[in-house]
User: Fold this.
Amino acid sequence: MPIFDNKITAWSAQADELIDTAVRNLDRIVDKNQWKVIEAFQKHKVSDYHFAGSTGYAYNDRGREVLEEVYAEVFGAEAALVRPHFASGTHTIATALFGVLRPGDELLYITGRPYDTLHKVIGKSGDGKGSLADFGITYAEAALDEQGQVDWPEVEHLLNDRTRVIGIQRSRGYDWRSSFTIADIEAMVQRIRSYNKDIVIFVDNCYGEFTETLEPTQVGVDLMAGSLIKNPGGGIAETGGYICGKRAYVELASYRLTAPGIGGEVGAMLGTTRGIYQGLYMAPTIVGQALKGSIYAAAMFELAGFDSKPGWGEQRTDLIQAVSFQQEQQLIAFVQGIQRASAVDSHVVPEPWDMPGYEHPVIMAAGTFIQGGSLELSADAPIREPYIGYMQGGLTYSHVKLGVLMALQTMLERNLL
Ligand SMILES: *Cc1c(COP(=O)(O)O)cnc(C)c1O
Assistant:
């Protein structure tokens, strides 16, 4: 074991005691989700021959077809599209939105500003080329109210007869707000349905999968999307995304992924199928490890005198743990400390840099097996006030604990604690 200062090991002992019940309660969610996944595998009679790769057009790839049935089953959806051909979460979400929106329609986000990379998809920033706006699809957004809740009077004001899709982002992303639980999303669905029965309710489910025992499509959401290098890939899927929901909408999305009339009938899986199945099988447990790590991190940083969001005792519905530091140097030490504890690339020291598309320098720790895989322990922070660091993931609880300990140790060594 690395040597940590006595002050830090004392906090760790205190944190372990503090969070004991919260961590054990998580096991109930993990057990339920683990069975939910195994039961879906059983129902669809998954066999080892389903894991074989396919080539060319890959018509009648049974492995791929059954994989999509299993995903639909787990998420309580009519249909799913689960493909390595989705290059990222943003690509997956864009495919879903382009699939169901038509020129003249409007997309209305009711959970405030969406995730950064979606701004260019919408056409809110950048030159707009190829964006929804470029295709004559307009966009409106209701900012969250002061309590961080949906501002319903504003939503009612913005709704109009062109509103075709309502967007909800489950996770806080990199904002200092709360994430929306499944119960919150269910209440949103009921309210939206009371205004309009036909609007397509879309959820960006990134970072949310398996943190609770139900998913948005099990409480009335029509369409949702997520990334396979986040939660549902279980740290094993090497690339890809999923879209699931009502069959008609998933089919429209499949026409955007491939071509109209072809849709999900083609798409060579090459050698990715087994990893995507096994990742889904692992996901409930790995997400549980990451969540335990987040609870421990929240408790440790609180003991060290920083604000954590969510707090260690709060309900969780995604993987992201935000910590508010007082100084820039603490933020940098935090990210560099996380990197120091990684198995991959621990010998490199992250530095703030001007990342394309960001207004401030950003520093990131990402010692991961899958490039950018954020179900693995990773941390990022824009260098700006208020100095908020974000961490997420961790394939093992022990690794997250060591990362947090190393982050605090690094701060201590630099006289920042
Ligand atoms: C990660 C994420 C995305 C985008 O996924 P990328 O793989 O980074 O393109 C979109 N929305 C949310 C909430 C996310 O967490």
Observations:
- The radius of gyration is 21 Å.
- The first strand starts at residue 79 and ends at 83.
